[in-house]
From TrEMBL:
The keyword Oxidoreductase applies. The gene is zgc:110366. The active site is at Y59. This is Zgc:110366. It comes from Nothobranchius furzeri. It comes from the Eukaryota.
Amino acid sequence: LALVMNQNTGIHLILLIFTDTNLIYFLLGTSYHGGYSHEAIVYALTDCGMRHIDTAKRYGCEENLGKAIKESGLPRSDVWITNKLWHADYGYKSAKAACLKSCSLMGVQYFDLYLMHWPEAQQPSCSNREMRAETWRSLEELYEEGICRSIGVSNFLIHHLEQLKEDCSVVPHVNQVEYHPFQQPNDLIEYCRKEGIVFEGYSPLAKGQVFKNPIVQQIAEKHKRTQAQICIRWSIQNGVVTIPKSVKKNRIWENCQVFGFQLDEADMVALGGLHDGRHVSWDPTNVH
Ligand SMILES: NC(=O)c1ccc[n+]([C@@H]2O[C@H](COP(=O)([O-])OP(=O)(O)OC[C@H]3O[C@@H](n4cnc5c(N)ncnc54)[C@H](OP(=O)(O)O)[C@@H]3O)[C@@H](O)[C@H]2O)c1
């Protein structure tokens, strides 16, 4: 459920517009409310010009999403679809089978991007590192076969990426990680850029926590924009692909209107200073 669109300069913005209620239990204690909105997906594709959809097996909406894309009337080649492999499916054979099943559920022949969702394998037979490497080899083959046109990871830290580099041959094309003003993993971003890995940030609104912050509020007032637009714009100006999620049409539209203004240096410094290390989603720090 993420959509990206920028008619002028290419893909910069990923708007996550729905997710599955299964995720809620990961997110207890936050302001998060999930849910799938078929109407919102079609609206985003047909009325907002969005062309990038990011989903995951975990979100449980692949089939409906495939239908929404078809309903939009857009040709497959005009839509970028990212999907993710859940860690219960890690392993050489099971990863391949899961990817093909996801393709079938969505009614597509290929994914534009396919990510390993989480660095922990939770398979008692071997270490996380071994299982990540075995799974990655399967993704490398899916990439060679053209079933996945690019492959990547999510929630991977530098040590996970370093191990993968030693164990495998294809460097991940993307790493999707939590990123918002309170969570700025700058060392990881620098590492990804040095290694040629696109850094993609999720939860750019910190699941709504940014709305309570006075600095974000002040900057929004200064630019006559909403706080959501300020945070999305901040990610883009930092060169980070961003994934705001909404199931509401007016918010999807609002979250797209982020290309007609610029944050100045003082704004960027002020927002950059808000990092306090909090995670509003998962924290992979202790996954070895
Ligand atoms: N790769 C991973 O491991 C991972 C982990 C966590 C999350 N994610 C993905 O990232 C997505 C986004 O994360 P998140 O939900 O934590 O996202 P977020 O984008 O930081 O926050 C989403 C929340 O903000 C609200 N919202 C969106 N636009 C708004 C606007 N313009 N004004 C006011 N409220 C607005 C949404 O409500 P409404 O929908 O009601 O508008 C929702 O409650 C998730 O859905 C999930 O799929 C990925």
